[in-house]
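Task: sequence design from structure.
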């Protein structure tokens, strides 16, 4: 029998690393969640742009959903009169909730929730949700309504990135590197490449609080001018952009997306 303090053999160490849940075996960022006064209107607004068939929970409190390719956006209700981007979600291969919970606890992080909905806060209190691959809608979600008979303006492929406003980019980068690997730094931002998606960190503007600043959606190639005309016809606010491959707009609640 090996002494209690004996080091693991290379084979045992390799097996332990393969079985470990941290760093995450993440397959990408899957969705962004919102807390808003009117979830149905928020979903319908982006449904006209990305996918006219929106979805909802079977039972109250009703949450509404809009698909963006293999990803989606989710809106839950609140009675505060204000809207927030509530959380973002990463999907994880070989995700074992109780093993993850134990590893998180050993690292001083409290992972809360159930297999279908669980998460933890980053150093600024921004909430990260984890779901097992392949992700997608839970069985409690059903088709709601088709918000228009028109074709969508854009044809999304999936989530591209989520950008966070943080109090300290280096501190947050160190935190997230424990889960998503090494960050790259450019123009006062830190980026994590998570399969086909990215997580970005930037310094929050003076006088503001940490939050999810915006998110990006990858779309099939489109004519920016024609798409802009159709969006303006729906009274969608277009935000400035000097990139011909990038279209920036505001959603129903004033959040920016690219």
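Answer:
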């Amino acid at each position: 029998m090996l002494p209690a303090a004996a080091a693991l053999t290379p084979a045992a160490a390799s097996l332990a690393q393969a079985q470990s849940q941290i760093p995450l075996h993440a397959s990408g960022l899957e969705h962004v969640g919102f807390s808003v006064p009117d979830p149905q209107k928020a979903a319908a607004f982006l449904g006209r742009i990305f996918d006219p068939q929106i979805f909802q929970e079977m039972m109250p409190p009703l949450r509404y959903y809009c698909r963006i390719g293999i990803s989606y956006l989710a809106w839950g209700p609140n009675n505060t009169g204000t809207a927030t981007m509530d959380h973002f979600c990463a999907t994880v291969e070989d995700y074992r909730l109780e093993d993850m919970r134990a590893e998180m606890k050993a690292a001083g992080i409290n992972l809360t929730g159930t297999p279908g909905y669980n998460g933890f806060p980053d150093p600024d209190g921004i909430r990260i949700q984890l779901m097992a691959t392949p992700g997608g809608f839970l069985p409690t979600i059903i088709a709601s309504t088709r918000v228009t008979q028109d074709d969508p303006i854009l044809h999304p492929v999936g989530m591209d990135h989520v950008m966070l406003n943080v109090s300290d980019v280096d501190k947050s980068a160190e935190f997230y590197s424990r889960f998503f690997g090494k960050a790259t730094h450019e123009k006062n931002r830190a980026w994590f490449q998570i399969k086909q998606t990215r997580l970005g960190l930037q310094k929050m503007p003076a006088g503001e609080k940490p939050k999810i600043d915006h998110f990006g959606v990858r779309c099939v190639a489109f004519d920016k001018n024609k798409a802009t005309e159709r969006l303006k016809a729906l009274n969608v606010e277009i935000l400035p952009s000097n990139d011909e491959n990038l279209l920036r707009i505001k959603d129903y609640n004033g959040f920016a997306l690219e």
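Confidence is low (pLDDT under 50) at residues 1-16.
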